[in-house]
Amino acid sequence: MAIVKLRAPLKDLAGGCREVTIDGSSVGDVLRELERQHPRITGWVLDEHGRVRLHVNVFVDGERVREDAPVAQDATLHVLPSISGGSR
Amino acid sequence: MTELLVGTKKGLFVLEGDPGAEKPFEVATRAFPGDVVEFAVRDPRSGRYFASVTSGHYGPRVMHTTDPGGDDWEQATGIAFPEGDDWSLERIWSIRPGEADGLMYAGVAPAALFASTDGGLTWELNRAMWDQPTRSSWQPGAGGLCLHSIATWPGDPMRLAIGISAVGVWLSDDAGETWRHGNAGLIPRYVPEESQGDTIDLCVHNMHRAPQRPERLFMQFHGGVYRSDDTGESWTSIAEGLPSDFGFPMVIDPGDPDTAFVIPLVADTDRVTVDGRVRVFGTHDAGESWTSLSDGLPQDGAYLTILRQAFGHEGEGSGLSLYFGATSGDVFGSGDAGASWFTVRELLAPVNSVRVA
Predict the structure, then answer these.
(1) Is this complex's ipTM strictly greater than 0.85?
(2) What are the boundaries of each domain within chain B?
(3) Edge-to-edge strand ranges of the sheet holding B204-209
(4) Maximum separation of any 2 CA atoms in chain B, in Å
């Protein structure tokens, strides 16, 4: 099972959970399961096409990856806002 | 006490004050700090507040609450495009009540209409507009391909008119099951003369229906101010007498179908108030003539930009109050239908929208 670490505002949308344990073989699988377990996150990380939003970064064991990257059983995922996003 | 909902580039500001006091309003609440609030409105039927919020990281969404100062803003569901289509939701431009219990509409970019039948908690895409066969050729305006104007027909949920930048006016007589164009008379000076009659690249900037005479609509166009007296089928220029026919905001007096207000900007190449003077122009004869309404507004070296949704109102007739905000972060108000103005608030973030709650 992979561990997904969340910060605000995603943490708040996940009912205050800083970490969520999720099974999945790819980043896309893990994030879709995250949405299923915490529906309020739906649309925040993945867009309508199942792609990680342009200004969101997902790291798997320290490496920045996209939705099609594999996820090992004991992987740690961080979902973070990118420095390219935000309101200027 | 008047409650103003001011959507800005840095969150939603809820301002409270009395237009009769002619002094600055207080900031009662700031919600969604750091996010762009494109638009905010209160549905007077339910008392529910809605905010279109775009996170630079996490995308756009509609949030709603019954207490804008509280912590219980909830996310509406269903405002998303179908999976598999090659479009992504960029921005939610407008939210407004419909003409049946619980009915609401939202206009978004890229151009699409959503409807809710449960008071705005859940939404569904209008497929007839989404599936228009010409969609792949639609051209965006500078603000994107945005469906920003939704004109309902008082008491009749079947009849709708919508405005899209830059795909013109669309009309429906069956609650959005089918749509047709309503563009006759609009002159897009930005395309070659020989193409002006055929193009659908029509950049509507704002469109409102006169509730007391619903077959009448007013429009601010991308170079042009127009009126329609035949439900939006055809349009007549009413720009004569304005210092410029370019601009974005528009307000209609709900109690008088002959009264409308615009805030002209220089041109599409210079989107600031004309001659460094902030002036609202009003007509009381359906556009036959216009009067400058500037008493109390900056008249020297004031080059403000007032965006499409940044002009709101309350009341009607001689009791009409007007409010607008600029990208400078300044908000102005009038408690006497524009005869005199006061500064509602200075130094907010760039203003996207102004509505009276």
Answers:
(1) no
(2) 83-351
(3) B204-209, B217-221, B224-228, B236-237
(4) 56
Counting residues of chain B whose pLDDT is more than 90, the rounded percentage is: 90
Whether chain B has a CB inside 8 Å of the CB on A31: the answer is no
**Kind and range of the H or E run holding A31:** helix A27-37
Task: Indicate whether B194 pLDDT > 90.
Answer: no
Contact A87 B83 (CB under 8 A): no
Lowest mean pLDDT among B118-132, B181-195, B258-272: B181-195
Mean pLDDT of the region B181-186: 96
User: Does the beta carbon of A20 lie under 8 angstroms from any beta carbon of chain B?
Assistant: no
Q: Which of A7, A13, A48, A83 to mutate against chain B (most B CBs within 10 Å)?
A: A48
Average pLDDT (B76-102) is: 93
Is the CB of residue B130 less than 8 Å away from at least one CB of chain A?
A: no
Nearest alpha-carbon partner for A3 in A66, A88, A87, A78: A78
A9 touches chain B (CB under 8 A): yes
Paired tokens of B269? 């190449």
Cβ-contact B120, B48 below 8 angstroms: yes
User: Are residues A43 and B57, on separate chains, in Cβ contact within 8 Å?
Assistant: no
Mean pLDDT, rounded, for B100-124: 98
Residue of A nearest to B80 (CA): A48
pLDDT given for residue A87 in this prediction: 59
In this complex, the residue of B34, B35, B57 whose CB is nearest that of residue A82 is: B57
The C-alpha atoms of residue B202 and residue B221 are separated, in whole angstroms, by: 8
Please give the Cα distance from B77 to B63 (Å, whole number): 9
CB contact under 8 A, A43 and B59: yes
Report the pLDDT averaged over residues A15-39: 96
Asked whether the predicted pLDDT for residue A86 surpasses 80, the reply is no
Residues of B numbered 33-72 whose beta carbons fall under 8 angstroms of chain A's beta carbons: which are they?
34-36, 55-59, 61
Picking from B259, B247, B244, B260, the residue whose alpha carbon sits closest to that of residue B306 is B247
Whether residues A48 and B85 touch (CB distance < 8 A) is answered with yes
- Whether pTM > 0.90 for this model: the answer is yes
Interchain CB contacts (distance < 8 Å): A and B: 54
Class of domain B83-351: mainly beta
Least confident among B106-120, B192-206, B305-319: B192-206
